[in-house]
Design a protein that fits this description.
- 2 copies of one chain form a homodimer.
- Chain A is mainly alpha-helical.
- The first copy, chain A, has 2 domains: 7-64, Orthogonal Bundle (Arc Repressor Mutant, subunit A); 78-186, Orthogonal Bundle (Tetracycline Repressor, domain 2).
- Chain A has 9 helices and 2 strands; from the N terminus they run αααααααβααβ.
- Chain A has a two-stranded antiparallel ribbon.
- In chain A, helix 4 (55-65) crosses helix 6.
- The longest helix of chain A is centred in the middle third of the chain and has 27 residues, at 113-139.
Chain lengths: 190, 190
């Protein structure tokens, strides 16, 4: 009855996705539930379930349509900026919904091409942004990197991601400091 | 017809799990496929599918029954031992099956209590072993740790895990060296 080319089906899909994006921007990832999305989109809850039987893929899709907030717009000194960004990322990774979205992304990417493209885009943005900011910091003499700047995302975000998804525990500040220190020799004070 | 208390059902389950464990020990995680498990267990492929519709949970269950190989039996100097262990772990994380098993573990643990207990046990073993080895290294004067030893697993395994599951790329040796250096000040030569 419904299909990918049915205009009503496509319209409700778009309304749901818009509602999810608005909820995400207004109230954060925990707001992207079937009930709240249905209410905001002005459709029945069953319609939301028909398009997205589970909430994580809907959250992921909504996330993919909003600009990635992390590591955007670097400020100087780089070290202080990076600490603030990693602290914000660690706090997000403590939310169950963000944890669910990121682990769903990692596991679904292994057998779903569209999800894998999303994973690659997500990882690439973080790697590029951090490498760019660190290359500039090195050019300014703020840091002498001890490894290629494209390794920086794994070295700094990796511990936070492992702490959240494998250890299921909050990231403490010393873990972030140690990861930042591992990037190289900083000339700015901690 | 079959149920959790049917002796034939339980016997075939045990035979399949034994076969999966043997294949894992003999030939590594990529050998744990429905076809090879069925052949080794002497049951039909349909029987394997009935117990484990997907291969990852079967691999995870087989993994849970064999001793965790990583970070076991520390040797001195700790720094060289840790490098070897992290290199071995990085190579395992490059295998599609290990990637699938670890991301399945992380995502399924969010809504499945048994899987969450397995995740916690898995993470706890790695954290305990590494903390134990580093505490001994510090007592011997090999290292002055720059953070609590229970943060060491996230700081060193985290980058490898992120590189494998989010960046889908191999870990290069400089990433491992940087993570080891981040643990503190080492008195042993690199």
């Amino acid at each position: 009855m419904t299909s990918d080319t049915d205009p009503r089906f496509l319209r409700s899909r778009e309304a749901i996705l818009n509602a999810a994006r608005q909820l995400l921007l207004d109230s954060g990832p925990t707001a992207v539930t079937h009930a709240r999305v249905a209410e905001r989109a002005g459709v029945g809850r069953a319609t939301v379930y028909r398009h997205w039987p589970q909430a994580e893929p809907l959250l992921l899709e909504a996330m993919a349509t909003v600009p990635m907030p992390f590591l955007a717009e670097p400020t100087v000194p780089t070290r202080a900026w990076l600490r603030r960004e990693l602290e914000a990322l660690a706090r997000q990774l403590e939310l169950d919904d963000v944890r669910a979205a990121s682990t769903t992304l990692a596991s679904t990417a292994l057998w779903d091409e569209a999800m894998d493209a999303r994973r690659a885009r997500f990882a690439g943005i973080l790697t590029d942004r951090l490498a760019g900011a660190l290359d500039e910091a090195e050019a300014r003499g703020e840091v002498t990197l001890s490894l290629a700047s494209r390794n920086a995302a794994a070295l700094t975000i990796g511990p936070l991601y492992y702490r959240s998804t494998i250890e299921h525990a909050p990231t403490d500040p010393t873990l972030i400091e140690a990861a930042i220190a591992a990037l190289g020799t900083w000339t700015t004070s901690p």
